[in-house]
């Protein structure tokens, strides 16, 4: 693909980071974002990405969602980095602006690849896994905790999809981190879901950064229990265990230790002091988080498969209390999670 025209749909912390990396590599990139203040800040002062590998300052072409209808020429690639629950409408919104031979890749948490496929068709759909930690507390400025040297992606096509074009997306994401090509993207994304189920909402419920939560007595057992439930649900669905985050097949050969191994790899390679999860960042801003697409998906699929998921059920219950009933994230809530894991 010769200098494709790329849209990054969702220029939050991760989307802006990926977009900045692509711009630095001299790609033709348009950022599409729904936070008006962030759009205006990038237009006025550019985008600043602050990371341990050095700071980037780029001046992207950026448009607000309300300006999508003014687009003319098609995009060759659309990278979707919006929340999982926004995928369906966002992918359909960009469908008229995706070239007939273009590709749309859901670079997100959650099982969003088939949602993208429903919007743009199997020959234009690519799946992706992302492991990149970043936060954005003010418009136009991203703090990226895992720079390019410590970010990880996987790319793959669904059955019947454009497997011969995996490298088109992999080559772009390689600007932002290490990239693995996988034959079973659904299994790879479920493995990331297993990891997400252990940490994103559980640490957010405590109101703590990830490392602080890990060192809270009793928390690791909750993490492992939530992840093991997700792993068992995945097995019931038919997903094999795959190595992600740069793990080797030998490191995930012992199914009984897969969740512990992934958790140790995650904390060793991708989690830095003070970093909070996307779920806690959303709650701090008064926003709806992705819990229904993470632990909620594990619990719902568990019910369909007849697999008990008491820890994930408890996570979803507490998350809804926080979002809808005014309960505040607090370390005292760990007792409800440990009771579910007992």
TrEMBL record:
Pfam families: ApbA, ApbA_C
Gene Ontology molecular-function annotations: 2-dehydropantoate 2-reductase activity
UniProtKB keywords: NADP, Oxidoreductase, Pantothenate biosynthesis
Lineage start: Bacteria, Bacillati, Actinomycetota, Actinomycetes, Micrococcales
Family from the record: Belongs to the ketopantoate reductase family.
Its EC number(s): 1.1.1.169
Ketopantoate reductase C-terminal domain segment(s): 184-323
Name this polypeptide is given: 2-dehydropantoate 2-reductase
């Amino acid at each position: 693909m010769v200098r494709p025209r790329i849209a990054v749909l969702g220029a939050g912390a991760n989307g802006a980071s990926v977009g900045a990396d692509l711009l630095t590599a001299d790609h033709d990139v348009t950022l599409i974002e729904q936070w008006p203040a962030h759009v205006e800040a990038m237009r006025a002062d550019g985008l600043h990405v602050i990371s341990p590998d050095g700071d980037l300052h780029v001046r992207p072409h950026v448009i607000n969602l309300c300006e999508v209808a003014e687009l003319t020429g098609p995009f060759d690639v659309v990278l979707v980095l919006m929340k999982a629950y926004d995928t369906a409408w966002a992918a359909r919104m960009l469908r008229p602006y995706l070239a007939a031979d273009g590709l749309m890749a859901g670079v997100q948490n959650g099982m969003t690849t088939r949602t993208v496929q429903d919007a743009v068709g199997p020959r234009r759909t690519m799946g992706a896994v992302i492991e990149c930690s970043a936060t954005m507390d003010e418009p136009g400025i991203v703090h990226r905790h895992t720079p390019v040297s410590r970010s990880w992606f996987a790319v793959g096509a669904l059955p019947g999809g454009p497997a011969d074009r995996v490298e088109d997306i992999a080559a772009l994401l390689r600007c932002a981190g290490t990239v693995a090509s996988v034959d079973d993207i659904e299994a790879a994304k479920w493995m990331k879901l297993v990891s997400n189920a252990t940490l994103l909402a559980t640490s957010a419920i405590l109101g703590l950064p990830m490392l602080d939560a890990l060192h809270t007595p009793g928390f690791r057992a909750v993490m492992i229990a939530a992840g093991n439930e997700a792993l068992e649900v995945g097995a019931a669905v038919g997903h094999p265990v795959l190595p992600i985050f740069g793990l080797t097949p030998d490191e995930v050969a012992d199914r009984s230790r897969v969740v512990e191994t992934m958790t140790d790899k995650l904390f060793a390679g991708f989690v830095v002091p003070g970093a909070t999860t996307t779920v806690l960042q959303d709650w701090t801003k008064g926003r709806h988080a992705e819990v229904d697409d993470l632990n909620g998906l594990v619990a719902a699929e568990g019910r369909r498969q007849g697999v008990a998921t008491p820890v994930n059920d408890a996570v979803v219950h507490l998350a809804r209390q926080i979002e809808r009933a005014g309960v505040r994230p607090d370390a005292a809530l760990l007792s409800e999670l440990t009771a579910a894991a007992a």
